[in-house]
Amino acid sequence: MKLEDKIKECITCHKMAPHAWYNAKNHKHGGFFCSYCRKCNNRMRYERRKNDPKWRGLSLSPRRDEVKRQAFEYKGSECERCGLNDDCLAVYDFHHNEDKKFGIAKYRPIIDGEVMTDRFKKELDKCSLLCSNCHRRQHHCCKR
User: Fold this and answer.
1) Would you place residue 6 in the very low, low, confident or very high pLDDT band (cuts 50, 70, 90)?
2) CA 13, CA 20: separation in Å to the nearest integer?
3) CA 110: distance to chain centroid?
């Protein structure tokens, strides 16, 4: 009997369906098929992710927010191009004017508690604080 001909029951919806309706797991090592049909698997994945901050675009790390807040205050708290001064940090980007050693958004201080290290300040000094609109204009103009 071929694999396509085999029928399996989904443990969630209890429908009988061919193996093609199931996701294969660990197929490199002989493999087996998921216990849930693809439709139930997708529904469960959606439900799991619906309330997960990572999938809603919210910050996963309060530490990352703190790093951005301190960098924002260090650079003057407003867009250097248009002067926008907004309390919402999500509207601001750091544009590197010189060679980039590391990304400001990805910065993770090694020493717990101290965010504004000399290394971080040097990198910030090579950046401009721009609102997202000005940052996109900057990159669009550079490509011409």
Assistant:
1) confident
2) 16
3) 21
10 residue type, one letter: C
Q: How many other C-beta atoms are found inside a 10 Å radius of the C-beta of residue 127?
A: 19
Question: Would you give the DSSP letter of residue 106?
Answer: T
Write the pLDDT tens digit of every residue in 102-128. 666 666 655 455 667 787 888 888 889
Nearest-CA neighbor of 142 among 82, 80, 96, 101? 96
Looking at the DSSP bridge assignments, the partners of residue 92 are 131
CB-CB contact of 124 with 94 (8 Å): yes
Structural domains of the chain, with CATH: 3-56 (no CATH), 62-143 (3.40.1800)
- Taking the CA atoms of the chain, what radius of gyration do you get in angstroms? 24
The per-residue pLDDT for 82 is 93
Q: In DSSP terms, which residues pair with 94 in a beta bridge?
A: 129
18-67: pLDDT as tens digits: 877 777 765 555 566 778 888 888 888 878 777 766 655 555 567 677 77
Separation of alpha carbons 128 and 70, rounded Å = 14
